[in-house]
Structures are given as structure tokens and as C-alpha cells.
Write a structure and sequence with these properties.
615 residues, five-stranded mixed β-sheet, 24 helices, 5 strands, nucleus
């Protein structure tokens, strides 16, 4: 298959160079049948490529037929508005995987999916369609989704695992089709990621008791991210990890939608942010790898752009010649795995595009890195006997150029360093949580406490000053906007308490009305403002633009939505199961797949060289 793609690319290149138009005479007659001149052309190119003439003639005829089909389709689209969609079917099908479907662009995605299923023999709910690197949305028209004439559509099949079947019988006790299950899984993934991202954004969860996501730099320390971008980055990284989990299980058809969603969320982040971590570059490699393993690389029109982007991101993140990376980590041995994958994919793309020299160059680079990254299994066994994991052994040996003693020291030091960083980060999180609880104990809402601490860089005393100077922040609350527990008339007992503290009775009553009977907040605000209320403070809750808050005594409440909580817990747990424990999991690979693919494509390159020498 790869060799055929190479021949197609080379022949297309020759045709362009010679300015040959196969859809015109003498290669096509007036009845659109093949002309005799095509055989002479096949002889010329087969001699040039040192290939079988019949095979070359067959491929040129395929190119000619496709050109005629495209011309006919273009004319048909201009006159009738009926568009042509090039459909790429899954590799398992024995028939031609690239097919043409005609349709109007005003139909919905669901109607197109039905049409594809009916035309090519699929069960409708068992397939997903990817067009322009996005999942087809069933409820919108093709036109609304930017689908145009002559677009490429890739069909992904959904496979059902034994575990999924077991879940169906255990949880629902009734038969469900696989597509519904996968759709629920995708929705749970989205919900779980949103919950974890929200927890990280709020920073009010107990780090010992509640799972949450965090973003760290290459040393393992948390990165402060602007609130406007934090959630998008969290979702991007979450979808990426979910996609990588499917890649490890070789479930490429399910992995691709997750990776494309990750790409969408990464695009919402600023360029400067993406240059500080290598995640975005790794994602580009994973997307191209996924298309390649699906044998649908031709559906990814911007494969070269993605690979170049990955290379640029690595350079920005790691520095020229990996200088920044070596400065931070002390070595760059583990990251070479990423460059091996990059060079391999660049070699494959160039081979499929008919670029012999570039393909050979990149494949040889990948092969050289493969030799450098080879790990002696006996050395891994030695480290396993010392109590390290196989993953730690591989990463440690690559970081230390295969030296077992140095690798053991490196792994031990890294464990201690990470343990210290995690403890420090947890302690920071705990201190912030205690400060929020302290401010909440004074009557402020969680939201108000968060904002004040953020403005005060975590300093509790400064945060309290900010809240006292801006008493309107009290209305930044977490409760249901529909709930209004304000006290219309403050109790005489509360008024007397404030008068006893030395405040004027009328001012005390007004303050209690503003703070809905909260004596502590009223006293603090009056004391901070010299016995009076700030002039810009609304004298009634209705004057505030924020929704009314419940008093601290009423804020607890009980939730009757235990089922929703269980579903959220299940969604979060599913995400956590796929997030690797080791922070450098993405750098760990046995390279078995890469080794076989490099050998395969190098054999193609050697065949090309042999043919060139014969010429």
C-alpha cells in the first residue's frame, strides 16, 4: 500500500512537470475512454522509475479516471448544487477504501451519516465521520459545518469491548447498542474533565480528599495560568491524556476524536503559554500518528504543517539544540523519543509525497535515534531487582546513556525531588484552603474569598483588608440566585450589639440591613470605615447588581441530587483511570512499533536506490 502511494505521488509529480492533462486528448477520447497514447506514457514513466509497465499504466489510468470524475463532479455541482464527497473507508474493508458520494450540502450531519451507512454497508450508530479534522455534528447542516464540494470524509468504526458489554448488563440490565454506550462515554469524559478543570480553577478543594487536575512545568512545579485560559488548557490536556490512553490500547478510531477535541481547546490558549510546555507539540505528533495508524494519512491535508509546528514548538520549549532542556533536567535523553517519532512521520509523509531524498534523510535520522535509544533488556532487569518499575528503568537508562548505576541514582533523586515538590504544592493548596475557610468563617462567600486572596497573592491579612475596603464583594456568592434569605428587619438584639460596640443605632441598623443580619461583617465594615458605611455601598441588597447571597448560617443546606453526584464521581473516576501516575509517561516507549515501521520504510527507500542505480 505504501509503495503504491509512493508511485502515485511520483507519477502525479511527473505529470505536473510534463504538463500532461490526462482528461484531454490524446489520453482521453471524446467518449471519455482511455486513449492509446496513455500506454506510451506508461512505458516512458515505467522506464524512468524502473517499475512494472502494467502497474504504472494501471495507476495512471486511476489518476485519469479520478480527474474525469472530478471534472464531471465540478460541472454537476455548478449546475445542480449537488456536491461530491470523497469517502475514505476503514482499512479492514477489502473493497476500494476511497469512494465518492454525491449529496446536497443542506442536509444534516445525521442524514449524511445515514447515507454513508446505507451506501457502504455500515450500521449507522456504529460509525463516526471526520471532515476537516472535526467530528461531524449530527444536528447541523453540512453547510453550517463548513463542508464543501470535493471535501474528504473519513469513516471511523466504533468497536465494543467486553468490559463495555459487562457494564451494560450490570448498570442498565437491558440491551443497548454500542454507539449509545460510546456516546455516553464521550459525554462522561467531557463532564469529568469539566469537573476536574473547574476544581483546579476554583482552588478550594481539599488536596488530600478531592481529585483535581493541575498544570506543571518540566520540573514538576505548578504553573500559574490566567483564569481566562486555565479551563481551556485543562480541557485540552485532559482530552489529550484520554486520547493517549486509547492510543496505547491501539483504539485509534476512538482516540482520534479525543485528540481533535484537545487540539480545539489548545487553540483557545495564547501562543506564549503553549511555548512553555511541550504538550501541544506532542499532540500534533499524536494526531498525525493516529491518522497514519488508521491508514488515512491522505485525509490529513495539513500533516506537513502539523509536523513543522511540532518541530517549532519543541525548539521554543527545549531551546536551540535542547540547551534549555539540559539546563532544567540535566539531560535530554528521554525527549529523544519524541524526535524519533517526529523524524519517522516526516519520513513517511515525504515518502507518500514522492520526495525520495527528504524521505531517506528523515528515515535515517529516525533510525540513528532508534539505535541510540535501544535499551539492553538485562539492564532493565537489573533495575527491576532494585525495586524500580519497568517504566522508570527505561526512562532512567535513556536519561543516563544506558549506565545502570547512574540510572539508579537518577531515578532515586527524581523520586525524592518529585515527592518534595508534591508536598510543597499540597502545602500551598492546603494553606490557601485554610485561608478561604477562615474568610468564610467571617461571613464572606467562597467566591469573594477566592478573589480577595488572588488579588493579595495569598496573603490572608491583605485579603481581609481588600474585603473590608470593598464590602460589596460580600455579594460575590456561590448560592442559588433564586434563593433570597435576607432579613428585612434586623433584630433589636443585633442592633444593641453594635450600639454596645460604640456605633450609632441608625448606622448599625442600616449596616445590618445591608449585610442581612450578619453582625460580624457589619461590625468589621463600620470599624474599618470610621463608624459609617462607605458612600458607594448600596444601602439595600436589591441595589446590588449581584444576586442575593444566603447568610452563613443558611448556606449549608442538603442536596437531594445524590444520583447526580454519583454520576459525577463516576465521570471523574473514568478520567483519573486514564491519567498516568508518572509525569513522564508520554516519553516512555518500548519503540517496538517504531522499529518495525522504520525497517519497513527503509526497505522501500533501499528499493528506490536500487532502481536508481540500475537506471
Amino acid at each position: 500500500m505504501a509503495q503504491k502511494k509512493y508511485l502515485q505521488a511520483k507519477l502525479t509529480q511527473f505529470l505536473r512537470e510534463d504538463r500532461i492533462q490526462l482528461w484531454k486528448p490524446p489520453y482521453t477520447d471524446e467518449n471519455k475512454k482511455v486513449g492509446l497514447a496513455l500506454k506510451d506514457l506508461a512505458k516512458k514513466y515505467s522506464d524512468k522509475l524502473e517499475c512494472c509497465e502494467n502497474e504504472v499504466e494501471k495507476i495512471i489510468e486511476e489518476i485519469r479516471c479520478k480527474a474525469i470524475e472530478r471534472g464531471t463532479g465540478n460541472e454537476n455541482y455548478r449546475t445542480t448544487g449537488i456536491a461530491t464527497i470523497e469517502v475514505f473507508l476503514p482499512p479492514r474493508l477489502k473493497k476500494g477504501r476511497k469512494n465518492v458520494l454525491e449529496t446536497r450540502l443542506l442536509i444534516t450531519g445525521r442524514e449524511l451519516r445515514s447515507k454513508i451507512a446505507e451506501t457502504f454497508g455500515f450500521q449507522e450508530n456504529y460509525i463516526k465521520i471526520v471532515i476537516n479534522k472535526k467530528q461531524l455534528q449530527l444536528g447541523k447542516t453540512l453547510e453550517e459545518q463548513g463542508v464543501a464540494h470535493n471535501v474528504k470524509a473519513m469513516v471511523l468504526e466504533l468497536n465494543q469491548s467486553e468490559e463495555d458489554v459487562r457494564k451494560i448488563f450490570q448498570l442498565e440490565e437491558e440491551e443497548q447498542n454500542e454507539a449509545e454506550l460510546k456516546e455516553k462515554q464521550i459525554q462522561r469524559t467531557k463532564r469529568g474533565l469539566e469537573i476536574l478543570a473547574q476544581r483546579a480553577a476554583e482552588t478550594v478543594v481539599d488536596p488530600e480528599m478531592t481529585p483535581y487536575l493541575d498544570i506543571a512545568n518540566q520540573t514538576g512545579r505548578s504553573i500559574r495560568i490566567p483564569a481566562s485560559e486555565r479551563k481551556a488548557l485543562m480541557l485540552a490536556m485532559g482530552y489529550h491524556e484520554k486520547g493517549r490512553a486509547f492510543l496505547k490500547r491501539k483504539e485509534y478510531g476512538i482516540a482520534l476524536p479525543c485528540l481533535l477535541d484537545a487540539d480545539k481547546y489548545f487553540c483557545e490558549c495564547c501562543r506564549e503559554l503553549l511555548d512553555t510546555v511541550d504538550n501541544y507539540a506532542v499532540l500534533q505528533l499524536d494526531i498525525v500518528w493516529c491518522y497514519f495508524r488508521l491508514e488515512q494519512l491522505e485525509c490529513l491535508d495539513d500533516a506537513e504543517k502539523k509536523l513543522n509546528l511540532a518541530q517549532k514548538c519543541f525548539k521554543n520549549c527545549y531551546g536551540e539544540n535542547h540547551q534549555r532542556l539540559v539546563h532544567i533536567k540535566g539531560n535530554c535523553g528521554k525527549e529523544k523519543v519524541l524526535f524519533l517519532r517526529l523524524y519517522l512521520l516526516q519520513g513517511i509523509r515525504n515518502y507518500h509525497s514522492g520526495n525520495d531524498v527528504e524521505a531517506c534523510e528523515y528515515l535515517n535520522k529516525a533510525h540513528q535515534l532508534l539505535k541510540e535509544l535501544y535499551i539492553d533488556p538485562s539492564k532493565v532487569d537489573n533495575l527491576l531487582q532494585l525495586g524500580f518499575t519497568a517504566q522508570e528503568a527505561r526512562l532512567g537508562l535513556r536519561a543516563c546513556d544506558g549506565n545502570v548505576d547512574h540510572a539508579a541514582t537518577h531515578i532515586t533523586n527524581r523520586r525524592e525531588e518529585l515527592a518534595q515538590i508534591r508536598n510543597e504544592e499540597k502545602e500551598k493548596k492546603r494553606r490557601r484552603l485554610e485561608n478561604i475557610r477562615c474568610l468564610k468563617g467571617m461571613g464572606y462567600s467562597t467566591h469573594a474569598a477566592q478573589q480577595a486572596l488572588h488579588a493579595a497573592s495569598g496573603n490572608l491579612d491583605e485579603a481581609l483588608k481588600i474585603l473590608l475596603s470593598n464590602p460589596q464583594m460580600w455579594w460575590l456568592n456561590d448560592s442559588n440566585p433564586e434563593t433570597d434569605n435576607r432579613q428585612e428587619s434586623p433584630s433589636q438584639e443585633n442592633i444593641d450589639q453594635l450600639v454596645y460596640m460604640g456605633f450609632d443605632a441608625l448606622v448599625a441598623e442600616a449596616a445590618l440591613r445591608v449585610f442581612r443580619g450578619n453582625v460580624q461583617l457589619a461590625a468589621q465594615t463600620l470599624a474599618h470605615n470610621g463608624g459609617s458605611l462607605p458612600p458607594d455601598l448600596p444601602l439595600s441588597p436589591e441595589d446590588s447588581l449581584s444576586p442575593p447571597a444566603t447568610s452563613p448560617s443558611d448556606s449549608a443546606g442538603t442536596s437531594s441530587a445524590s444520583t447526580d453526584e454519583d454520576m459525577e464521581t463516576e465521570a471523574v473516576n473514568e478520567i483519573l483511570e486514564d491519567i498516568p501516575e508518572h509525569e513522564e509517561d508520554y516519553l516512555d516507549s518500548t519503540l517496538e512499533d517504531e522499529e518495525m515501521i522504520i525497517a519497513e520504510y527503509l526497505s522501500y527507500v533501499e528499493n528506490m536506490k536500487s532502481a536508481t542505480k540500475k537506471n
